[in-house]
Fold:
Amino acid sequence: MGRPEKRLIDRRLGIFLAGLFLLTVAVPVGNLWMAGQPVPTYLVALIGKYLCYALLAVALDLVWGYCGILSLGHGAFFALGGYAMGMYLMREIGARGVYANPVLPDFMVFIGWKELPWYWYGFDLFPFALLMVLLVPGVLAFVFGWFAFRSRVTGVYLSIITQAMTYALLLAFFRNDMGFGGNNGLTDFKDILGFDLARPATKVGLMMLSAVALAGGLILARWVTTSRLGKVLVCVRDAESRTRFLGYRVEHYKLFIFTLSAMMAGVAGALYVPQVGIINPSEFSPANSIEIVIWVALGGRGTLVGAALGAILVAAAKTILTGALPEAWLYALGALFILVTIALPTGVLGALEGGIARLKRPAPAQEVEA
Amino acid sequence: MKAFLRMVLVLLALAEATAAGAADFATLVAALPAGGYADRAKVVRELGLSGDGRALKVLTALAGDDLKVMADGAVVIVYEKTGAAVGAVDGTDKGTPAADSLQRIKLNNAVRRALRTATGMLTLRDPDPAKRLSAARDALRAADPEQIEALDAALAAETDPAVKTVLAEAKAAAVLKSGEASEADQLAAVTLLAQRGDEAAQAALAPVVNAKDPAVAAAVKKALADIAEARKLWGLAQNVWYGLSLGSVLLLAAVGLAITFGVMGVINMAHGELVMLGAYTTFVVQQVIRADAPGLFGWSLAIAAPLAFLVAGGVGVAIERGIVRHLYGRPLETLLATWGVSLMLQQAVRSIFGPDNRDVGNPSWMSGAFHLGQMQVTWNRLWILVFAFAVFTVLLIVLKRTAIGLQMRAVTQNRAMAANMGIRTGRVDALTFGLGSGIAGLAGVALSQIDNVSPNLGQGYIVDSFMVVVFGGAGNIWGTLAGAFTLGIANKFLEPFAGAVLGKILILVGIILFIQKRPRGLFAVKGRAVEA
Amino acid sequence: MKVTRRTLLGGIAATAAAPMVAPRRLWAAEDTIKVGILHSLSGTMAISETTLKDVMLMLIAEQNAKGGVLGKKLEPVVVDPASNWPLFAEKARELISQDKCVAVFGCWTSVSRKSVLPVFKELNNILFYPVQYEGQESERNVFYTGAAPNQQAIPAVDYLMSADGGSVKRWVLEGTDYVYPRTTNKILEAYLKSKGVAAEDIMINYTPFGFSDWQTEVSKIKAFGAAGKKTAVVSTINGDANVPFYKELGNQGIKAEDIPVCAFSVGEEELAGLDTKPLVGHLAAWNYFESIDTPENKAFIAAWQKFTNNPKRVTNDPMEAHYIGFNMWVKAVEKAGTTDADKVIDTLPGIEAPNLTGGMSKMLPNHHITKPVYIGEIQEDGQFDVVWKTPDLVPGEPWSPYLPESKDLVSDWVGLKCGNYDKVKKVCLGGA
Amino acid sequence: MTHPHAIGGLPPETQPQLYLDGVSRAFDGFKAINNLSLVIERGELRAVIGPNGAGKTTMMDIITGKTRPDEGQVLWEQTVDLTKLDEADTARLGIGRKFQKPTVFESHTVEDNLALALKADRSPWAMLFRRAGAAEAARIDELLGTIRLGDARKRLAGDLSHGQKQWLEIGMLLAQDPQLLLVDEPAAGMTDAETMMTADLLKSIAGERSVLVVEHDMDFVRALDCKVTVLHQGSVLAEGRLDAVSEMPEVIEVYLGR
Structure:
């Protein structure tokens, strides 16, 4: 393990941010202004989606990589952020739904509801929806964490109850009575803040926004982890008991980072929904949350940039393989997971950096792997 | 036996032929193919009431789809094996008509219902008491006023007390339905049915709750209330049974995980797929038996169980040696690798067996149900419960009483020390993982009897299995036992009130809250050693 | 050493994958017409959807054998949306904008259709949707070849209420908790009440997806049926949960003669995973059964079993829907002389294509088709025996007249150019 | 919560710093601590000895609030009830604890380990914004001198030797500026020279602060040259100078005599 660098933007983050910046410049140019459209609109939405996943992975890395909390329920925070945004987008449709009801979303008319339930109030206002994107996942994480961390639930026990949490939410959101569209979820969005979601320019804008959010999330996460608080988090991860005996209220630290991470996940979800055009309960499924863990592990736990990279790699692999090998892609993906864990214990980023380091400075003979 | 039966039939036919008239029977049989289902049901009913001894044979053939119409319009009974046809009315030989020249007499539920009642009427005087009992039950279900006469005759001739009781109840139901008997008779009928006190009695009483006679109506109302009250307690017992049964399924699914995850600390996400492999092994075994030795079908599960253990256990050993071995000390990474294994196993099964459900049959001893008081117990659930306990007991014995079990515990408690004492830890690891996986395979055999056998089978159980192990307290297989049954019973008590969906949500919230109270599960290993 | 290991592992992965990989594009030539196939080949829905992918491949191969369309070969493009709803949208976009498919045949669940809808509207392409659904939708870019509620649910209930069906008086509406059962049950509840069924004679019950412990639910049905009135269950239970449901029914001794179960989502394919002996007489309502004896159907089954190289492979209703839909599309393209989406969409209404049950189905202006309705009883051999059918083809109607929200709505993409036109207010609702 | 004032001068003899009376604690029926009473005076150096399972670690768990006693009184400075507090509370009161197995933050540098242990506002919010200052650096220099790890300042704690880790942990305790140090077997795994140096260090710490040492190594206890408490089966068997205690027949029987 190398010595942690103290600078806010180290080389690793710097390179990644530079790449991200190039992307946000190249994509709009290539999509909107260049002849022949070298970047098809299809790709824009795809990149936007990957960037949201990357932000979600960074959020998980913050709690898992730095504080040792393996959350198997982070998909829940992502989905809640997504639902908050989805609710705004539903209200934004207004009377353009198939039943032309100015207030009720189609699915409510469809199941015969006569008035808007109270928890849908306010979502017609964008700022309120934005607040909820942060608040709903944040409050859930705070309450959940307050109970769990205070009772000193740790390790697999914590992982499993986070899984129980997202599973319970999955079942709850499936229920049509909940008023969130049941299995179909929220869909058929028209526009956001008056911008038509079907227009390429809107898609490019959302993708750029996602890139900015990812950059912001990375910098924020980096700032937190390089602060004294970040060091205490690592203390908690490595020696929780020692940290307590030094007088730190471990549960407060866990609560802080868990809530912050949930809010980041919520933002990722909120950006994801207008780009994929649907939010439904399957986002709460435990398998989705496990996949987030896999992104982080694959990219490199506790490196932030690695987590983002892992998310993008796996999502891109899925896109390519489901199209290129529709009957066999699961073999390829499964094999990828196994190979990475066994052959690259420090994740893709670790292997990459190790490789570069070796290239720069030819290793002494005895270090060559036998 | 057969000869005797035929003799009785002939005697009966002779006795009644004069009264009912042979022409009538022939007309009825000839009318069977005509008209719609409602007409057919009517003819069947009349055949039943005719009491004609030949009717039973015709009706049995009809139920078995062996009654056909020949090109010339004659109704014949066709013997399935030989294809030979005989006249349905007189038994004359009609040769062996070509299969496609025969027209089917189709059935639907209404006709089938009429058939059941009619066959029942005709077997009320059957020499076999079991057949008479089932006939009496059919009569009770039918509650047909037109059967009163026949029931009276059967009652007079009946010697078996059990059959007699049901016959009396059947008559009571018919009497109530007709509403024409004296008040005293009707009240007696109500009392009789109230004594029976089960769903059949309820079904017989409920329609006459608004009887014309106010006294009868009141008595029926009271009887229904009494039955409902009495059944409440049984309902409680029934719920406990459902809970135990669900618990046994959870236990089977989770106990293998209690070894690989609870004892060894490997987060084995492929556990569900090992269960699935067990179920597919059962399918393959049954396929082979169906093709080569149909007589062994009753034994198919007994044959499949050890094979499933070996298949899943073998795959488990391969996973351990190939992957998990490299990851000890990095427990969370086993999650990633075994998730990959799970994806590959799912897809492999999909490629080999196809994506749709496979038909795993229930041997006869796994089918049907029996009554325990007012409680219904299905055989398959009972055997699964027994199987779950058997697996658990054997596992306990292996862990506590055998040399390999001792080595397993030694290695999991102190690997270095065990290695120093000459235990080959690598071999023990592989065997322990194989044992846990093999048990997952056994669970698959049981689950194939109640659930889909499809590539998704495992995914349905993996989350629940982890919940059970963690709720019970990882590292303690007694905890898994207690956890499985607690969750099973709690679930089944919540379900009637909250519904299946909300019930499950409440259980999950319950688990979350419970872990706050006991952060190391139900059966936590206590003491200060835990956190050291 | 390092290099060798990596190559070795890569080699293993490649050899493992190679035999299983079906070539995605069958013709590499440029001069083909590409048709997208958007069905899940993995995940929970693979169980139902894989068959539909296969049937599309067969239909396209047959069409190519006949010379293709407009003188060009058809080229199927298969992708796997993996039962993941956002992935459906992504893959739809890929099929249309990357692979330049001129029409897509796909989706099973309503949520997957809802997920891809905006994509088809935005990119102006054509989706053929082959599964029975809850209605309440009619989109310009979608052609619904499965049954609308009036082509399945209502006739089934009519049959059960008839003397032939057993004059059912008491109803259990049992479903999986999602939109299709919820809506269907709502329509049925309104319909039953309009037929004079009392509220206490209707029990509605929902269970989660993949529900497997049916003990309590089945005993509840049994108790509900013990009220002395003829009771039937109308089941909108989703695929996976059906096998344990029927197993429990059989074991608890609920016979079709006593409490028949009429299902809308159980076909030949689902029965293939079951021992049907205890289930004889339970019902299903569909627009097609494999057992229906017509020359077209016989030929289709023979071709299917030959194509899949499996003499036991069954056929089912959504397959027939794809058969009809595909033939309609071929005819429309040939009539329009182009694959241009706008022209094909305008040409399709009015096109007729034979169904497999001896009739001619017609594409209606509301983008639904005319279909016969059959009620079948389960037989011992896993097939259905038709016990009832509608005398004529029933035109599909997306907007249910039994729901207050939709009773005034009509869909007409030819005259009114509107999927949700309010007859009373005389306006096309919504701004889409 | 009030933070203890800096200590100046020796406290009066009559004021016990720590007071345990009739404390019991059972695990699954086994009484790890049984009616234990113990008084530590301010500035005192005390060694606690006893065979394995005598309840030494459980006693420390109870004092630091990690384990709650079933019964009995545990008072800090005669007023604060320690049974109501948890580890972080007791640490903030001024009780520092060193584990038997050296526990330092291995992925942090030696310097960071000490910096994180320094007495300061421990709330997450304050930690988020705190940056290193000159005063802090000076204090760390001083501590590094005391524990003789000046050269290792920038090294990762995980790379230190076993003995160095023990020292670093003691340094972290000192950084907390505690009034009472609970030290669990500090000499375990140390060389003889290191053991003697540790004894000297602890002796120098005592006086200003109270120190309670649990130890097996008799040479080390002898080197500490202080009052000794012998624990047996969860209660105090004997108390006094080591020479006196080791001559008591009951002590010889249960502990030294083996």
